[in-house]
Structure formats: structure tokens, C-alpha cells
Specification:
single chain, 174 residues, mainly beta, four-stranded antiparallel β-sheet
């Protein structure tokens, strides 16, 4: 919120602005949640003072969660993220455009069923105690599979595990 302050007096000498008791410069946005008091004191050349105070409350939506991380295995997935701030009632998780969490999640963690053969898009948002949902953090998980490309030592054209020093296991992630 950026307050607009106007004063009109033919003999205006000066204007003093105070936000929550501290000096304030017009044109600077106010972004801190909570109750605020903006006081404007107008002084004229005759020494008269007019003071107008406005009390208002800001309650902005929470920021998007940061550090969204995914750990998946065939059949199961786990999402974690950093809690963005205080005043959080919980979190919402959307998977592939459909809400995946029932109600609000109380902590920055979500377990899900997972199929690794398709692209999945997860979105996580925080909801504050006033019910305002903040911006979403998005994570796209590509399909993944691991195949055994080779193993052991080749003896007479056959791959064999000999439990020796030269045995290797080669995996391919796609």
C-alpha cells in the first residue's frame, strides 16, 4: 500500500508524516503485515496545526514456498519445502492441475503415489491464518527410468560377475 497524502492551505508551512510513531516519507510503499497508524501534521505560517490520523491493517498473502524438493521411487513420492513465514495455517499441493492434498497440510511435507513413466507437475502454496493463498511454487518432474546397460566382466563374449576388481555395473538413467 502506498498512501497518497495531500494538503491544501494557502499558508502551508510544512507537513510532517509519521508511520507507527516513526518518521515516514510519502511515496514509500508500506508492506509489513499488521495494524499501522499514519499521522499527518500540517503546519501553517500562523502556527496552527492540523493533525489527521488513519489506522489501517495490512494482511498480505504469504510468499511462495521456497526450496521445493522431490524424491521419488516407483510407486511413491515425497515433496518437501521451506516454510515461508509465520502466520501460516497450512499448505496446498496440486498435482497435474488437480488438488492432491485434502484440506491444508500442517507441515512442509507431502507424500504421494507416483508413476515414473509420465511427466508430473506439482504446485505448492501457503495459506495464511486469514485464508489467503499465496503464490505457488512449481516443480516439473520428468519421466525417469533406470536400466541395466551392462555388468561384470566380459568373458568369451558373455557378461559375468566374477566379484573381481574389474567387474563394473553400468546403469542408464532416461
Amino acid at each position: 500500500v502506498t498512501p497518497v497524502i495531500e494538503s491544501a492551505d494557502l499558508r502551508l508551512s510544512s507537513v510532517e508524516l509519521r508511520l507507527d510513531g516513526a518518521g515516514y516519507t510519502a511515496g514509500i510503499p508500506i508492506s509489513a503485515d499488521g495494524q499501522h497508524t499514519l499521522a499527518v501534521s500540517a503546519y501553517d505560517t500562523a502556527g496552527n496545526v492540523t493533525v489527521v490520523s488513519v489506522v489501517f491493517t495490512l494482511d498480505t498473502p504469504p510468499p511462495a514456498p521456497q526450496g521445493l524438493a522431490f524424491v521419488g521411487s516407483e510407486g511413491a513420492a515425497s515433496l518437501t519445502w521451506q516454510a515461508p513465514a509465520a502466520d501460516i495455517a497450512g499448505y496446498r499441493v496440486v498435482k497435474d492441475g488437480v488438488r492432491a492434498s485434502q484440506g491444508l497440510l500442517p507441515s512442509p511435507h507431502f507424500d504421494d503415489l507416483y508413476a515414473s513413466d509420465a511427466v508430473h507437475v506439482y504446485e505448492v502454496s501457503a495459506v495464511d491464518n486469514s485464508g489467503q493463498e499465496g503464490a505457488k511454487t512449481r516443480l516439473t518432474v520428468p519421466p525417469a527410468s533406470v536400466t541395466l546397460a551392462g555388468y561384470g566382466t566380459t568373458i568369451s563374449g558373455q557378461q559375468t560377475l566374477t566379484r573381481g576388481f574389474f567387474d563394473t555395473v553400468t546403469a542408464r538413467l532416461s
